[in-house]
Amino acid sequence: MQAVVLNAQRQFVDQERPTPVLRPVDILVSIQAIAVNPIDLKRVERIGPTDSPVFGYDALGTITALGPQASRFKVGDRVFYAGSTQRDGAYAEQQAVDERLVALAPKNVSAADAVAMPLTWLTAAEILQDKLGLSLERPLDHPLSLLIINGAGGAGSILTQLAHQLGVTVLATSSPRHFEWLRQHGVDIPLDYHQPLVPQVRATKLTIDASVNLFDTGRYFDDLVTLVRPFGHLVNVTRTSLPVDVQKLQAKSQSFDWELMFTKSALTYQLQEQGVALEQLQRWLDDGRLKSTRTQTIQGPLNAATILQAHQQLAQHQTVGKLVIERTDSIK
Questions:
Q1: How confident is the model over 188-212, as a mean pLDDT?
Q2: pLDDT tens digits along 286-299
């Protein structure tokens, strides 16, 4: 099969590779569409000698084969998933993926709209459920205010929607030109990231119960310690470019939380929870409860030139929502 790999010079090249060998509970998927995420850019910078050279962590396609113990799906099913960083990704004609990480794709939205969602949905769901202890099945029975740094990106745009659905008061930062996007995706109070954060938040008179930093952990750490209430949570998704003094959390008994969506698949910890979460995403997309966060689509062959184009667009850091590649070449 054809795949796009990162070579020793950190360049994407087309390469013929063997069809993946299926593990017992794997499915083999013929890729129709993928989404490109910031983690793809980061892995280009950080790839090690034992890492897979095939990236791609949002995918949608059709099942063409089943592992000997796979039982959740059948050949011909259309599925979507985020996958795992520990195995070859979706920059290929076909991908093997553990069926526990997978759900049937939505039927009432396009492939491009659906494939934009798995990775960021799982990130948002794990933040709200695993870190903040909320239920996605029922609205809050008490007031809660959540401050999100970088609310207009892919993860932010689904986290804001999901939190809003639960009755959370959502504050989120972005450029002012994206304030309308924030409001359309569940944000109650947009904040200008060009301006000092603390006075903007204090002007709202709200008690901030928790924060989610989707940008740079160190850049906002001191401000978030100041703003989040005693016994509140500071959830962080990205690495830090600056030292972080966690001792500052002690006086307010605050909790410092990490969220990495790939932890469960990398450490084979509760893998089935991600498949179940994607089943919920499928239902909510199909019934219109959630909007896809796709804003850009590249249509073309799934080759090195197309991947490079997508990475160059994402590297400009001007993307609101998600960037998707939809295959136009023949699917074997």
A1: 99
A2: 999 999 999 999 99
| Tokens at 37, concatenated | 């995420």
Q: How far is CA 320 from the centre of its chain?
A: 13
Indicate the length of the chain as a whole number.
Answer: 332
Topology classification of domain 2-117+269-327 = Quinone Oxidoreductase; Chain A, domain 1 (3.90.180)
Mean pLDDT of the chain: 96
How far apart are the two ends of the chain, measured CA to CA in Å? 9
For residues 300, 305, 311, 315, the Cα torsion angle rounded to the nearest 10 degrees is: -120
**Residue burial 78-104, b: 16+ Cβ < 10 Å; e: rest:** bbbbbbbbebbbbbbbbbbbbbbbbbb
Per-residue model confidence (pLDDT) at position 332: 44
pTM equals 0.96
Quick one: fold of 120-258? Rossmann fold (3.40.50)
